[in-house]
Write a structure and sequence with these properties.
single chain; alpha/beta; 34% helix; disordered N terminus
Length: 219
């Protein structure tokens, strides 16, 4: 329990000064976030699994083995590595604003023999995905993005037919995460995604600290 509390405190502190994106009004602002090796000890700590439930999240997404997936805000690869193993005939693209995170994840993919995982440097207004994907996943990242309606409207061009966007982010009453003033209610997320041209197609409630919403382009 002590280890878990330490991890929650560290994540809260780190998310208060975001990994790669920080929102100031409606404009994104890059913040340097180096030393991925050090932060991997926090983000990839096994104690996180107790509340992040990554295997359940990925199972709920029901990905085909050959799916193309993008993990926006991929950091040190907590989800990206698991996604790569879940789609052995597919491809996973990590996208992050921090060069050290990109370098770290590419090295990790090579070390763990995950040939279907690669990371690339994103821009604040564009994840720069190399090809359209079946799923875009954002975990604890949505609230950092500026001009979200425009960002996700543009992202529709990076989705394959029947492509989806899955958003996992902190509840307003979560004991961990960014300051409450920096969080968004799920209703606000749905409204913004509707403005960007999406409809909600699924919602999962098994995460204790986060909501889990899935969207598809509106027809």
């Amino acid at each position: 329990m002590t280890r878990l509390l330490v991890l929650l405190a560290a994540l809260t502190a780190s998310l208060a000064t975001p990994l790669a994106l920080a929102q100031h009004g409606s404009q994104p602002m890059h913040r340097h976030f180096g030393d991925a090796e050090r932060w991997s000890q926090v983000f990839d700590d096994p104690a996180r699994d107790q509340w992040q439930k990554p295997d359940q999240v990925i199972a709920a997404l029901a990905l085909a083995p050959e799916a193309r997936v993008a993990d926006i805000g991929s950091g040190t690869g907590y989800f990206a590595v698991r996604l790569a193993r879940a789609v052995p005939q597919g491809k996973v693209y990590g996208a992050d604003l921090e060069p050290d995170m990109v370098q770290y994840l590419n090295a990790r993919a090579q070390k763990e023999a995950l040939d279907n995982l690669s990371a690339q440097l994103a821009a604040p207004d564009d994840p720069k995905l190399p090809e359209p994907v079946d799923l875009v996943l954002l975990v604890n990242t949505y609230h950092h993005i500026g001009a979200r309606a425009q960002y996700f409207a543009r992202l529709r061009d990076s989705l394959r037919p029947d492509g989806r966007v899955a958003i996992v982010d902190f509840k307003l009453d979560s004991p961990t995460g960014p300051p409450r003033s920096g969080r968004l209610a799920p209703e606000a997320v749905e409204k913004e995604m509707a403005q960007a041209g999406y409809r909600r197609v699924a919602a999962h409630d098994f995460l204790p600290n986060q909501y889990f919403l899935v969207f598809a382009p509106a027809r």
